[in-house]
Specification:
- The protein is mainly α.
- It folds into two domains: about 15-70, Homeodomain-like (Arc Repressor Mutant, subunit A), CATH 1.10.10.60; about 75-190, Tetracycline Repressor, domain 2 (Orthogonal Bundle).
- About 70% of the residues lie in helices and about 0% in strands.
- It has ten helices and no strands.
- It has helices at about 15-30, 40-45, 50-55, 60-70, 85-95, 105-115, 115-140, 145-165, 170, 175-190.
- The mean pLDDT is about 90.
């Protein structure tokens, strides 16, 4: 017979409880992927029960969808003058992949959860809504959808090779050199006519 684990008492605050569950889910899915973690473990880390998680989110799939929305909610890169888009993208990629930068939860969430077909579908829909379509709207000329997707793939690849794998050429390169090369690549995809 399993002994019940005593959870710490949490003050009743629906918004704070929902946020605690979402932050726990984001961390858990980023660390373990969709298939590598269960609702009970997420609930325990949030200081609640699995029943409460299901009451707030309905299912693990819906909880994952909500965590993905939190992870991909920052679309500020696509605001502002389109002529400075390559600069903004380059600065963001370099800053997010510095050695002392916080872990890249959205990238880890993507890498570790994409093998599950339903999780991949949720990720694909969220990426299209938050990144691909807004980016496409800033691109002039032919093949804007393809170019937007290539920019996002380039960003993910840079994050993967610089932050996760630790490619020496990218981690040891000078900031000025990285900036010039990355910006040129972005600008080439942005300006294609």
């Amino acid at each position: 017979m399993r002994k019940a684990v005593a959870l710490p008492k949490r003050a009743r605050n629906a918004a704070a409880t929902r946020d605690a569950i979402l932050q726990s889910a984001l961390a858990a899915f980023s660390r373990n992927g969709y298939d590598g973690i269960g609702v009970r473990e997420i609930a325990q880390a949030a200081g609640v029960t699995a029943v409460l998680v299901n009451r707030y989110f309905g299912s693990k799939e819906e909880l994952f969808g909500a965590a993905v929305e939190i992870a991909f909610s920052d679309s500020t890169l696509f605001e502002g003058d389109p002529s400075s888009l390559a600069h903004r993208l380059t600065e963001a990629v370099i800053a997010k992949t510095e050695k002392d930068a916080d872990p890249i939860d959205p990238l880890l969430l993507l890498l570790r959860s994409a093998p599950n077909p339903r999780a991949a579908e949720i990720l694909r829909e969220s990426i299209a809504r938050h990144f691909e379509r807004p980016l496409k709207s800033l691109l002039m000329g032919p093949c804007a959808s393809e170019r937007a997707a290539m920019i996002l793939a380039f960003i993910s690849g840079l994050q993967l090779f610089r932050k996760v794998i630790g490619s020496k050429a990218l981690t040891d390169g000078t900031r000025a050199g990285l900036y010039a090369n990355i910006k040129a690549a972005f600008q080439g995809l942005i300006d294609r006519d």
